[in-house]
Each structure stands twice: as structure tokens, then as C-alpha cells.
């Protein structure tokens, strides 16, 4: 039994109904809820004074808070967590939402990156939040690698995979590179890589350079190392993160304090490395996970929530994640099934194309 279940067991039916109605009203309207509002359609005939006493008890338990002395109550972070874990009623994905997400994968395009980008845009449009898609790494065996000089301070590294997939990325090569040193570096790598995935190559490249130092001069060695670092660093993991719909988090009616929190969130979103590392924590288990406020240290200052779900390939291996960021006042009952549905859709898309 989790903590939410234990606390819920301590509440009688009246307290549980008061708590549920406060949270549901807050998630819809964003406003503090007063006792008189609750008495209008309460399941039993009770006075506003009785409701106030119940709300005070819930506040004492740390489940509700009062933003102003004379205002109604809103759920605390602990209260939201208990609601999500113990009282949340998840609806089915609405037909219009499902059609909007499905429409992104109806094209015959084989560009998985482009499709994932469209899925991210659709997800942000449907949820009115910021969407995150952590795209899978390409793990097919490598067929060929090539370095192409573009300028003194720019070079292109091209990877051709055995399944026909091609990746290329511009990087800054070490000073002093020549066409011949680039050919040497490519020849050195091509002698090693055939039949190996990029992850395999990254594991053996350092030791092979040490063993075959006579076959590759220091200039070519530096080029090999810096070229592969494009995939070892941000090109490998962190640029696989697609962020869409950040403007959705800006509300024309937001107060200055809310706008400050949103600006902080925008700064967080720019740190793709941090977000990718955090989303990969969600790859540890199946199903949708919800992180509220300070439970997610990345967004704790902005007071935001993250609803995230991993997705799997045909071998049931978790290879990425999709998620939605928004204020803690999210419509969790609607967002959770949308994220879950999108994760399953992406998993099927990846499996069908593998």
C-alpha cells in the first residue's frame, strides 16, 4: 500500500469528497475553492461551516493550502500527488484528439525524425502544453564512414548504415587537417566498423587507436576522436530530444508571477541535456509516470508538472519517451491517456519501420 492509499484510508467519505471536489475544481478553473461553492452540489446536505471545518482538517494534513487569508483552498503538491495516485479518474482518449495524433503518421514518409517532429507538434496542440519526444538512437550496423572538409574550421562526418539510413553532422575538426589526413582517418575507421553498431565502435575505438598507433598519425587520430565525439556527445543523445509547443504555456491572462515561472521553465527547456537525462529515467519502467513540481528537480522552480511515458520497439525494449510539460494545474485525467496513446503509437511506428 502506497502513502496515498494510507492517507486516503484515514479520510471519511465526507472528507474524501471535499478533497476530491476541491482538486477537480482547481484543475478545471485554477481558482481557490470556497466552502459555499462546495455546498451547492454536495452529495449530502451540509452547512458551509461543516465544509470549512473539513477543509481546515485537510489543510492541517498538508493536503490543501490557502493562497490568501480570506480565500478558499487549493491543493498542495502533496495533495495533488495523493489525488493523482488515489483518486484520479482517467478517461478514454477523445476521438478528435486521437484523429489529430493519428494524422501525423498517415504519410508514407520514411523519415522517422520528421514524423516524430510532427507527432510532437500534434501532441502539444492537443494538450495545449509543451511536448517532449525522446527519439530512439539508430543502432543498425555501420557500413561506411566518411569525413568531408567544408572549410578550415568545418567538416562533415557521414555515416552510412547497413539498412540504408544515412546520418551526417557538421563539426569543428582539429587544426591542420588535410584531405589526405581525412582519408587516412576514414580508412582507419572503415577497417574497424563494418558489422558494428555505433555503440560498438565507441567501445573499441580508444583501445584500437592505442594498438595501431603506427597506422594512424596524431592528426588523423584527433580527427577520428573529434568526429566520433559528435555522436558520443550531444549528437548521440541530447539532440534526439524534440521540444514543441512552448508558446502554449504562455497565457495572456497570466499574472507576473506566473510569467516569471514560465520564463524559468523556458530556460529549463533550453537545457536539452538535462531534460534528455531526466526523460531517460522514465525509461526504467513501463507506463505513464507523473512528476509534480519539486518531485522533478528540473522544473521545481517553475512549478510545472511532467507527464511522461516510455515507448518500446518490436522486441519490447524501451528506446525512447514522450511527454507533456504544463502547469501543476493540468487536466491529468485527460493528459495521461493522451500521452499513453501517443507512446504506444510511436512504439508501433518504430517497430513497423525497423
From TrEMBL:
It comes from the Bacteria. Residues 115-336 form the Heat-inducible transcription repressor HrcA C-terminal domain. Transmembrane segments: none annotated. GO terms for molecular function: DNA binding. GO terms for biological process: negative regulation of DNA-templated transcription. Gene3D superfamilies: 3.30.450.40, Heat-inducible transcription repressor hrca homolog, domain 3, Winged helix-like DNA-binding domain superfamily/Winged helix DNA-binding domain. InterPro entries: GAF-like_dom_sf, HrcA, HrcA_C, WH-like_DNA-bd_sf, WH_DNA-bd_sf, WHTH_transcript_rep_HrcA_IDD. Keywords: Repressor, Stress response, Transcription, Transcription regulation. Belongs to the HrcA family. Negative regulator of class I heat shock genes (grpE-dnaK-dnaJ and groELS operons). Prevents heat-shock induction of these operons. This is Heat-inducible transcription repressor HrcA. It comes from Roseovarius tolerans. The lineage of its organism: Bacteria, Pseudomonadati, Pseudomonadota, Alphaproteobacteria, Rhodobacterales.
Amino acid at each position: 500500500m502506497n502513502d496515498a492509499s494510507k492517507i486516503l484510508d484515514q479520510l471519511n467519505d465526507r472528507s474524501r469528497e471535499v478533497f476530491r471536489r476541491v482538486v477537480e475544481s482547481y484543475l478545471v478553473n485554477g481558482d481557490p475553492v470556497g466552502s459555499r461553492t462546495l455546498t451547492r452540489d454536495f452529495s449530502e446536505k451540509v452547512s458551509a461551516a461543516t465544509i470549512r471545518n473539513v477543509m481546515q482538517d485537510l489543510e492541517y494534513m498538508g493536503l490543501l493550502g490557502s493562497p490568501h487569508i480570506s480565500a478558499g483552498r487549493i491543493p498542495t503538491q502533496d495533495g495533488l500527488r495523493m489525488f493523482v495516485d488515489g483518486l484520479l479518474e482517467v478517461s478514454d482518449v477523445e476521438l478528435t484528439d486521437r484523429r489529430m495524433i493519428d494524422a501525423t503518421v498517415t504519410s508514407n514518409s520514411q523519415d522517422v525524425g520528421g514524423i516524430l517532429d510532427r507527432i510532437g507538434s500534434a501532441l502539444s496542440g492537443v494538450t495545449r502544453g509543451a511536448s517532449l519526444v525522446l527519439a530512439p538512437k539508430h543502432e543498425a550496423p555501420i557500413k561506411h564512414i566518411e569525413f568531408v572538409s567544408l572549410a578550415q574550421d568545418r567538416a562533415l562526418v557521414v555515416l552510412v548504415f547497413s539498412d540504408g539510413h544515412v546520418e551526417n553532422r557538421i563539426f569543428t575538426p582539429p587544426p591542420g587537417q588535410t584531405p589526405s589526413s581525412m582519408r587516412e582517418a576514414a580508412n582507419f575507421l572503415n577497417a574497424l566498423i563494418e558489422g558494428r553498431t555505433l555503440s560498438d565502435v565507441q567501445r573499441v575505438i580508444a583501445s584500437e587507436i592505442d594498438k595501431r598507433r603506427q597506422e594512424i598519425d596524431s592528426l588523423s587520430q584527433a580527427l577520428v576522436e573529434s568526429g566520433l565525439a559528435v555522436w558520443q556527445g550531444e549528437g548521440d543523445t541530447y539532440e534526439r530530444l524534440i521540444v514543441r509547443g512552448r508558446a502554449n504555456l504562455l497565457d495572456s491572462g497570466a499574472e507576473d508571477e506566473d510569467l516569471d515561472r514560465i520564463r524559468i521553465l523556458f530556460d529549463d527547456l533550453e537545457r536539452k541535456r538535462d531534460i534528455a537525462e531526466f526523460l531517460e529515467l522514465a525509461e526504467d519502467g513501463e507506463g505513464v509516470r507523473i512528476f509534480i513540481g519539486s518531485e522533478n528537480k528540473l522544473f521545481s522552480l517553475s512549478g510545472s508538472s511532467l507527464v511522461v511515458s516510455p515507448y518500446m520497439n518490436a522486441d519490447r525494449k524501451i528506446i525512447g519517451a514522450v511527454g507533456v510539460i504544463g502547469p501543476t494545474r493540468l487536466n491529468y485525467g485527460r493528459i495521461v491517456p493522451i500521452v499513453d496513446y501517443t507512446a504506444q503509437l510511436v512504439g508501433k511506428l518504430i517497430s513497423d519501420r525497423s
